[in-house]
Amino acid sequence: MFPERLQLGLQCFVSILKSGTLNVALRQALGVVRVEPEEPSAEDRGAVAASEERIRGAVQVLRALQTDSGLIDFLLEDLRYYSDQQLAQGVRAMQPDARDALSRAVRLVPVVDRAEGELQDLPSDAAARFANGSLRLTGNAAEFEAIHGGVLRHRGWRVAEAYLLTLPHSLDATVVHPAVYEVE
Fold it and tell me: Does pLDDT of 141 surpass 80?
């Protein structure tokens, strides 16, 4: 019993030295906090069939990316047979066309408009952003309430506007790119 208590005491000491507080696991081990497993929400219970309108919008973006840049072909290609130089050349040629196609379909803005790679305080509404999925913590993020900041690794992207067309219903809404035959 004494060795377990000594080990727990040392873990508490290290946790307080590192972060100024006890992490959730230590609080639970000490009986300070009762942690109950969360019930999965309706959103977490698996994929839900998308409406025809949503499918058409998603396919329209994929169609633009494929038609203008061949991005879908690239993503589905087995790349292990290509050299790094061939891949670099292909990506360099494809990226401007894919960027232009994407910008014609949606206007993206950063979720957090700050410089990446710098130590920063979390936004004042970080808890709400974490809850709605627009902020994610990585690294040693055991207890959200004790975290005040970190290094911004990615600003994130949010769709500010979408510029999708209403396509004729006669078209197959699931076709990203038609099969192409060259006739001789």
Answer: no
